[in-house]
Design goal:
The structure holds 2 protein chains of 2 kinds. By secondary structure, chain A is an alpha/beta fold. Helices cover 60% and strands 12% of the residues of chain A. In chain A, helix 6 packs across helix 7. Chain A starts with a helix and ends with a helix. Chain B is an alpha/beta fold. Chain B has 2 domains: 309 residues, TIM Barrel; 43 residues, no CATH class. In chain B, strand 5 and strand 6 form a beta hairpin. In chain B, helix 7 packs across helix 8 and helix 14 packs parallel to helix 15. The mean pLDDT of chain B is 92. Classes of the chains: A alpha/beta, B alpha/beta.
Chain lengths: 213, 397
């Protein structure tokens, strides 16, 4: 069993094609390996390795996207059984690009990677008002609120969202993660975010770290 | 605020890019139009930078001395150089163009078909209110697969006579280019990454390197053919009257290049080399890549491809002229890299940023001063003037 899970992880981490990964997945299912094992010891292990290689400068955006796309294909094979087994998500993330900003490439990459890692992501899209973020935090009770902004002119909106969370008395219920080209670690600290992600993989790492505590 | 006396800015740029001695380090900037509008409201004297020419005809009607608004010339006012002051007029876009048109709107957004064929939306402009520059949100791109690429390719015919102006005539343009000494004569080329990302969108284009390498190979082969053949007439006519090639690529973000060195080597390098060899054969040797983000992991390959200069070297992405010079010596002339965030603060922060980089650049040469991107709306007119005055003083060798 470990052998086939190892192969699944390696096939994904080495970005071999989706067909090979699909064959291995179907093999694992035929051997009646529990879905959770396939997910955790196979696919997510492989995806984590892709993230590690990206952070280490061995992989770049193309590899990250292709890895996430292979993961998406693999999840389609598992989808019918996932529903039956009702596997728990690792946690919930409410995500969006702040008001006045309609950029979404970085946000979407983060979303793909976070979903692959096992988070349930509620994507509010772009140009999201602070009120909308607050409303969704109240409604979904996520562990993480992810705020994205590309422009230096729209990063002040992140601070407004945090202030609105405070006003609503729910700031301590959710971790705030900020990201985007104009965001720096210093800026994150300055506005009272819990962390500033310099890229999608680092953002997901923060979420995993918070949820594992 | 006049530019420093001495040799013409055009020669200064050429000498700096060639690592030759200069009397003053050249200074180039590009302005967002929004920034200039803001500067007007903060005291920039409009009459000193608005460029008006006197036309004898307008829209086919014969008129005498009809003033025509041509745009802004902030460069002369501040004493910096415009990279694009004199661009070789080759149309490298899709021909026929997609008709740029608004296809929908709601209370907040307008949806457009752009000239490249992409569908996008952007914020609606409010009357009397300035909408600051922002890239639109792309909703759909014209190339999705082999079939749509084959369709699009028909618009990328280098032989189309509309690629050159109707009045294209060798001697006239030679005179025109020789007469322009305020900056370099520039030929603008879109590098393959920029080309593909514009047609497919960054995520799909990046994925295609793995999911559909045959499509990428076909696109890059056509890009090479299209680029060389489109510019051939201008390049073979003007040769080294073209001072520099502005190679727009935008292939990186803060974390690093969007494509790996492996993919660059496999797909881009051979084609880029053939384009740069064609330019070199015609005595055009200054080729400056425009890419934001952290390009360092692929710079060795970029240089191998024939690129000789790099702009704007974003500090926020970890680019630093001091390290780049140490590592690449005179293999790469450097342009920009003055941290816009620090410079916009003015005073001590601005002076510190300039003083930390200029001495080494003066000593080693091969540098064109400037911000690490366009002049953004966060600058106030006062702070930009303060920067201009301080920098110009420091640029003198």
């Amino acid at each position: 069993m470990d052998d086939i899970l190892y192969k699944i992880a390696c096939t994904l981490a080495n970005l071999e094609n989706s067909n090979n990964l699909g064959k291995l997945m179907r093999g694992a299912l035929k051997e009646k390996i529990p879905i959770l094992e396939i997910l955790e010891k196979g696919l997510r292990k492989g995806l984590n390795e892709i993230g590690r290689k990206y952070e280490a400068g061995e992989y770049f955006l193309s590899e990250l996207l292709f890895g996430a796309s292979m993961m998406e294909d693999a999840m389609k094979i598992l989808a019918p059984r996932l529903k039956a087994e009702r596997l728990e998500k690792k946690g919930q993330i409410v995500l969006g690009t702040v008001r006045g900003d309609i950029h979404d490439i970085g946000k979407n990459i983060f979303k793909m990677f976070a979903e692959g890692t096992g988070f349930e992501v509620h994507d509010l899209g772009v140009d999201v008002s602070p009120e909308n973020f607050v409303r969704m935090v109240v409604e979904k009770e996520p562990e993480v609120l992810g705020l994205s902004a590309l422009l230096t002119t729209t990063t002040p909106e992140m601070k407004i969202v945090i202030e609105e969370l405070e006003k609503a008395g729910i700031r301590d219920r959710v971790r705030v993660l900020v990201g985007g080209n104009a965001v720096t670690a210093e800026f994150g600290k300055e506005i009272g975010a819990d962390a500033a992600a310099l890229d999608a993989v680092q953002g997901v790492s923060f979420c995993r770290e918070w949820l594992s505590r | 605020m006049k530019e420093p006396e001495g040799i013409a800015p055009r020669e200064r740029i050429k000498n700096a890019a060639d690592f030759k001695k200069v009397d003053v380090i050249p200074w180039c900037e590009s302005f967002y139009e929004d920034t200039l509008v803001k500067f007007f409201s903060e005291g920039l004297p409009a009459h000193e930078i608005i460029n008006i020419e006197w036309e004898m005809s307008l829209d086919g009607r014969l008129l005498a001395n009809w003033p025509k608004f041509m745009g802004f010339d902030p460069h002369s006012y501040f004493g910096c150089i415009n990279y694009m002051g004199c661009a070789v007029p080759v149309d490298m876009g899709p021909i026929p163009r997609f008709k740029q048109q608004r296809i929908g709107e709601n209370a907040k957004y307008e949806e457009y078909i752009m000239e490249t064929g992409a569908r996008s939306r952007r914020f609606k402009k409010e009357m009397g209110k300035i909408t600051w520059y922002a890239m639109p949100q792309f909703l759909e791109f014209p190339v999705k697969d082999k079939k749509s690429w084959e369709q699009y390719k028909k618009r990328l015919n280098p032989e189309d006579p509309r690629r050159y102006p109707k009045d294209w005539e060798k001697d006239g343009y030679l005179r025109l280019f020789d007469g322009y000494q305020k900056g370099p004569t520039m030929l603008v080329i879109t590098g393959f990454y920029g080309f593909g990302a514009e047609l497919m969108g960054i995520p799909n284009f990046n994925l295609a390197f793995y999911k559909d390498p045959e499509l990428i190979e076909d696109m890059v082969s056509h890009w090479e053919y299209f680029t060389i053949e489109s510019v051939r007439e201008a390049v073979e006519t003007l040769k080294d009257r073209i001072d520099m090639v502005f190679w727009w690529e935008d292939l990186a973000e803060k974390h690093g290049p969007n494509i790996s060195p492996k993919l660059y080597k496999e797909f881009l390098l051979p084609h880029n080399k053939r384009v740069t060899r064609f330019l070199n054969k015609n005595k055009i040797r200054r080729i400056m890549m425009d890419s934001d983000g952290n390009t360092q992991p692929i710079l060795d390959l970029v240089i191998e491809a024939g690129i000789t200069g790099h702009w704007p070297l974003e500090v926020n992405s970890g680019m630093d002229v001091r390290n780049l010079r140490k590592y690449y010596g005179n293999k790469l002339f450097l342009a920009g890299n003055l941290d816009k965030r620090e410079i916009a603060k003015g005073d001590e922060a601005m002076r510190k940023e300039i003083d930390s980089k200029l001495p080494l650049m003066k000593e080693t040469g091969g540098y064109i001063a400037g911000l690490d991107h366009l002049v953004h709306v966060e600058f106030t007119f006062e702070k930009f003037k303060e920067y201009a005055d301080y920098l110009k003083e420091k640029l003198i060798i």
